[in-house]
Write a structure and sequence with these properties.
The protein is an alpha/beta fold and 260 residues long. It contains eight helices and seven strands. The longest helix is centred in the middle third of the chain and has 29 residues. Helix 1 links the parallel strand 1 and strand 2. The mean pLDDT is 97. Helix 1 packs across helix 8, helix 3 packs parallel to helix 4 and helix 4 packs parallel to helix 5. It has a single domain, classed as NAD(P)-binding Rossmann-like Domain (Rossmann fold), CATH 3.40.50. Bound molecules: nicotinamide-adenine-dinucleotide. Nicotinamide-adenine-dinucleotide binds next to helix 1, helix 4 and helix 6. Its EC number is 1.1.1.30. GO terms for molecular function: 3-hydroxybutyrate dehydrogenase activity.
């Protein structure tokens, strides 16, 4: 149902973003990949996505912590493909440390990637979506857009801010054919989660197994990780015509995490 649509997914070289790119391509969308990674792996994935969708997927390199890279990304898509109909602002990073020793440069970088990038992408992409009378903007937020955890100050702040940005943008575009929503996962098994295990082990003085059972899955009542395919299925639903009246929402997919 996405034939003739273009879809930019930031952070699509890994994890949730890659699963979203695959789901969109499977529905015929022309997918634009961006993110860091091994060039050979990215090229392999780009070809696989092209085959899946039947249209040529693009990879456009960008460091979304830089405002100008976000703008350039959207402009290049506009020049080459006539605009991004779907934008999934998904790139995100994490750093785990107490506020007293939280490195200031990590604070700045997390806010730049997790919060300011979606803002710059909106600023660049929304005018064309408005002109076309159709658009879907989805931000990958987190349960940390509505609750806090210790040692994740920058992440919690960025994701709370992102939830506010999504609501504001939804109000500014309501009735225009554009919808703007957030998806808020609990713990999803991806490199982002795997990579924070060593820091959490150090900060809390725990073994790897203790971090998994006492920190990660202890917070998630289902006791199970969310899968990237489950997140992608929700993103795909938000792109459907049936979802035209869903805007300004923030969907938890968290195994009951925020129900406590
Ligand atoms: P991941 O580490 O697997 O992927 C992150 C992606 O972002 C990668 O493609 C990476 O290259 C890209 N990226 C990071 N910094 C970038 C930059 N400066 N410029 C361009 N690309 C950059 O992580 P993931 O778990 O798939 O996370 C995706 C999103 O989901 C993030 O916003 C994250 O906060 C959110 N999230 C993840 C979980 C989880 O449990 N994994 C839970 C809640 C929310």
């Amino acid at each position: 149902f996405l034939k003739d649509r273009t879809a930019l997914v930031t952070g699509s070289t890994s994890g949730i973003g890659l699963a979203c790119a695959r789901a969109l391509a499977a529905e015929g969308a022309t997918v634009i990949l961006t993110g860091f990674g091994n060039p050979d792996d990215i090229e392999k994935e780009r070809r696989a996505l092209s085959e899946l969708s039947g249209t040529e997927a693009l990879f456009i390199p960008a460091d979304v912590s830089r405002p100008e890279d976000n703008t350039a990304l959207v402009h290049e898509i506009t020049d080459r493909l006539g605009g991004a109909d779907i934008v999934i602002a998904n790139a995100g990073i994490q750093h785990v440390a107490p506020i007293s020793t939280f490195p200031a440069e990590q604070w700045d970088r997390i806010l730049a990637v997790n919060l300011s990038s979606p803002f710059h992408l909106m600023q660049a992409a929304l005018p064309l979506m408005t002109a076309k009378g159709w658009g879907r903007f989805i931000a990958t937020a987190s349960v940390h857009s509505v609750i806090a955890s210790p040692f994740k100050s920058a992440y919690v702040v960025a994701k709370h801010g992102l939830a506010g940005l999504v609501k504001t943008a939804a109000l500014e575009t309501a009735g225009s054919g554009i919808t703007i929503n957030a998806i808020s996962p609990g713990y999803v098994w991806t490199p982002l989660v795997e990579n924070q295990i060593p820091d959490t082990m150090k900060t809390r003085g725990m073994t790897r197994e203790q971090v998994l059972s006492d920190v990660l899955l202890a917070a998630q009542p289902s006791g199970q990780f969310v899968t990237v395919e489950q997140i992608a299925a929700l993103a795909l639903f938000l792109c459907r015509e049936e979802a035209a009246q869903i805007t300004g929402s923030n969907y938890m997919m968290d195994g009951g995490y925020t129900a406590r």
